[in-house]
């Protein structure tokens, strides 16, 4: 399972464990509460029976034989009988709901004058008083008859139930988690402009409809994108044909009569053709191009050579050689857009540097232009955003930086525009070494 669902799954399992533990504890408390009354009734009845039989035996015996009878009765089934002296200190009953309930039920049968304690003369047990004529006695019932041993076997059953419940919860959460992982991955690909694989529609009932709807949405978006690309390609072809004829006609104008107008018209036609090219680049993206391990220095040196052929003196500062997984043509388009933007609106000299920072390769394009207002740094990465300033991009479509930003995101990287303290702009491209 992937990282995010693992966090969610661990929280779900922890919540299930806590809820099960609370439920088991509550069940034990409820069982103890409802079982306390009959157990106390049985214990009290046992004590009352022992007292009544002992009292009846002593009453039926001759007075001079009571001592011998007491000796004979003491020790039977662990029950002991002693003469009582109520002038001595008697410990109060402990603050135990069960013992208090047993004492109340014994007094209900033997009378309110009955004295009950759980420890006397250092001997533990249930001490119950009774009297015969002027004599007072204690009947001592050992703890084994009063206290119920802790049900350790319950802990085993509770642990078994808890383990089975957690295992069932884990399997259920994992079953739901798998299609959720696929959905998250597909949605992430769709967000990046990639076509996701079709989600399986044989998952759990709760997610089957979601998967079906998502697949239909992805198919609809793919069809819409294909239609848009086809329309723009058709429009581009239809517009470029008359543009080519127009340029040919302009080139045939006489230089001596229309020299100034001719150069302006040629430039306008070139700008229109460039705008159409940017539209197509924005729509086309990087579809069909495979990802390759490419030496970033080779890419930057090729960029330097292209700029030299265009008559531009591009300064490059290269980091040590390092290969990264990229789409070469798309990355070339990104760098050309950034460098072209820097030359068009950056005031002359342009410098490109690369450096390795942790798990990233950072490529920076520096220019000496007027910079960009802080409030517009992020806006300029959106399609069709332009500034009415010295960097207005008045001759373009406003898609150059948007294309560069889209390509950076397709490589799991990021593009930032940063105003330099000494003046000018830095376009900083960060590409992960592994993606």
UniProtKB/TrEMBL annotation:
It catalyses: ATP + protein L-histidine = ADP + protein N-phospho-L-histidine. Residues 234-435 form the Histidine kinase domain. It is a multi-pass membrane protein. It holds the Pfam family HisKA. One of its GO terms (cellular component) is plasma membrane. It is found in: Cell inner membrane. This is histidine kinase. Coiled coil: none annotated. It comes from the Bacteria. PROSITE patterns: HAMP, HIS_KIN. GO terms for molecular function: ATP binding; phosphorelay sensor kinase activity. The chain crosses the membrane at residues 12-31. Its EC number is 2.7.13.3. Gene3D superfamilies: 1.10.287.130, Histidine kinase-like ATPase, C-terminal domain, Sensor histidine kinase RisS, periplasmic domain. It is an enzyme of class 2 (transferase). Keywords: ATP-binding, Cell inner membrane, Cell membrane, Kinase, Membrane, Nucleotide-binding, Phosphoprotein, Transferase, Transmembrane, Transmembrane helix, Two-component regulatory system. InterPro entries: 2C_sensor_his_kinase, HAMP_dom, HATPase_C_sf, HATPase_dom, His_kinase_dom, HisK_dim/P_dom, HisK_dim/P_sf, RisS_PPD. Residues 174-226 form the HAMP domain. The lineage of its organism: Bacteria, Pseudomonadati, Pseudomonadota, Betaproteobacteria, Nitrosomonadales.
């Amino acid at each position: 399972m992937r990282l995010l669902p693992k966090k969610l799954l661990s929280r779900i399992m922890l919540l299930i464990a806590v809820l099960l533990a609370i439920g088991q504890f509550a069940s034990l408390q409820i069982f103890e509460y409802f079982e306390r009354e009959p157990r106390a009734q049985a214990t009290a009845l046992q004590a009352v029976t022992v007292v009544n039989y002992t009292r009846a035996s002593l009453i039926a015996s001759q007075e001079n034989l009571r001592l011998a009878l007491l000796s004979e009765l003491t020790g039977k089934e662990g029950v002991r009988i002693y003469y009582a002296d109520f002038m001595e200190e008697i410990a109060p009953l402990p603050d135990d709901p069960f013992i208090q309930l047993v004492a109340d039920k014994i007094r209900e049968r033997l009378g309110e004058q009955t004295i009950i304690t759980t420890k006397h003369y250092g001997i533990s047990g249930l001490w119950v008083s009774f009297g015969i004529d002027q004599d007072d006695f204690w009947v001592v019932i050992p703890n084994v008859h009063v206290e119920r041993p802790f049900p350790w076997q319950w802990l085993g059953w509770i642990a078994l139930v808890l383990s089975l419940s957690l295992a069932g919860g884990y399997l259920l959460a994992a079953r739901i988690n798998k299609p959720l992982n696929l959905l998250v991955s597909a949605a992430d690909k769709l967000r990046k402009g990639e076509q996701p694989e079709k989600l399986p529609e044989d998952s759990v009932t709760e997610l089957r409809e979601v998967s079906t709807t998502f697949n239909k949405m992805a198919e609809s978006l793919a069809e819409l994108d294909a239609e848009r690309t086809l329309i723009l390609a058709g429009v581009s072809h239809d517009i470029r044909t008359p543009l080519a004829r127009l340029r040919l006609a302009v080139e045939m104008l006489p230089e001596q009569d229309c020299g100034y107008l001719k150069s302006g018209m040629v430039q306008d036609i070139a700008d229109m053709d460039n705008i159409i090219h940017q539209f197509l680049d924005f729509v086309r993206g990087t579809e069909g191009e495979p990802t390759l391990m490419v030496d970033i220095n080779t890419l930057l040196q090729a960029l330097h050579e292209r700029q030299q052929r265009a008559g531009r003196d591009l300064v490059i500062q290269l980091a040590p050689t390092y290969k990264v997984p990229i789409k070469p043509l798309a990355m070339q388009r990104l760098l050309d857009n950034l460098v072209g933007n820097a030359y068009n609106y950056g005031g002359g000299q342009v410098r490109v540097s690369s450096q390795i920072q942790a798990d990233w390769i950072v490529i920076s394009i520096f220019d000496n232009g007027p910079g960009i207002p802080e409030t517009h740094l992020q806006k300029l990465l959106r399609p069709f955003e332009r500034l009415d300033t010295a960097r207005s991009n008045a001759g373009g479509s406003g898609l150059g930086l948007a294309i560069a930003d889209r390509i950076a995101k397709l490589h799991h990287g990021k593009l930032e525009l940063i105003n330099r303290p000494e003046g000018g702009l830095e376009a900083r491209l960060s590409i992960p070494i592994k993606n």
